[in-house]
Amino acid sequence: MISRVADHCFWFGRYVERAESTARILAQSASFALDAELPPAQVWRPLVVVSGEEATFGDGECDGETVQRFMVWDERNGAALAHSIGAARGNARSVREVLSTEAWEAINELHLWAASDAAQTTFDHEREQFYRQVRRGTQLALGLLRSTMLHDEALDFIWLGVLLERVSQTARMLDVHHHAFTNLAQRPAHDVLETGLWLSLLRALSGSEAYLKRAGGRLGPESVARFLVSEAAFPRSIAYCVHSAYDRLCDIRPPDRHELPGGAALERLRVLDAWVATRRGEPLAGPAVHELLTHVVDEVHTICQTLGKELLGGA
């Protein structure tokens, strides 16, 4: 596969996953804001922080409506939902020949709907339905990729992008929530608020049911952090995604093929996979969580940059 096609496949996967994740997080935050007795900024600013767009957002009012419009429509925001959907469709169009017709139609229809007056009307009057429509469209595309395409290099690059994007989203969300808890310690009914925040995080990552099955109904900060970091059977945990991404890259560039490019990215991903695995037995509380998650985010960023230089034709 030529590097240009591989690059479009990789970024198609990343943008579809980013759009799906953003829609879920926005929907869950809107629901949580109705139940939690917290200042609006404490509910909504974490979304801006997770997106990495604090500088673009600025110091303006951080209420729900302002943040949602910024995270959905704002053209200045490179992480906006509309931008991610448009970028996913643009990358898909560039490699139309390697995608199945069904997967192309799913992402193209989502793009056309998101750019229509109907989507704007739904956003204005049926906010929950708007986010549900985006989630269904992206999830349909992801499912069709797995069920209608050849499981060859094109799908390997797409799914590598999905998995690395998912690692970053999970790590950033968990890190921001841990930081928010430090501001709750002095508040009345702190335990109730903390429980609500942990449940909100799990729901935003589609993990509440899976977690409660594993934990037997018990909810605690360290157990939630350990589940999202180390649970090998949960497809959004850091451990699962890093290991699966390593397996995908091994399929693309086998470890014993030293003459092929991609060796540095593969080795870095192998080291990260082993490092995350060794954290399973360590306590996950306080500063240790922040240090672990910061390392994961930084390493994933470096791995993506290295992939760009070695395999995707980047400068």
What would a concise description of this structure say?
The protein is mostly helical and 315 residues long.
Write the layout of secondary structure elements.
Layout: H1 3-35, H2 40-51, H3 54-57, H4 64-72, H5 81-94, H6 101-114, H7 117-125, H8 127-148, H9 153-181, H10 190-204, H11 208-215, H12 221-230, H13 238-252, H14 263-278, H15 287-310
Helix pairs in contact: 1-2, 1-5, 1-8, 1-9, 1-10, 2-4, 2-9, 5-6, 6-8, 7-8, 9-10, 9-13, 9-15, 13-14, 14-15
Keywords:
single chain; globular; 315 residues; 2 domains; mainly alpha; 15 helices
How would you describe the overall organization of this protein?
The protein is mainly alpha-helical and 315 residues long. Helix content is 74%, strand content 0%. Helix 5 packs antiparallel against helix 6 (101-114) and helix 9 (153-181) runs antiparallel to helix 10. It is globular. The model has no long low-confidence stretch (mean pLDDT 89).
Number of helices: 15
3D shape: globular
Number of strands: 0
Unreliable stretches (pLDDT < 50, length at least 5) are: none
Round the mean pLDDT to the nearest integer and report it. Answer: 89
Class from secondary-structure proportions: mainly alpha
Strand content range: under 5%
Major sheet description: none
- Evaluate the radius of gyration: 19 Å
Cα-to-Cα separation, first versus last residue: 18 Å
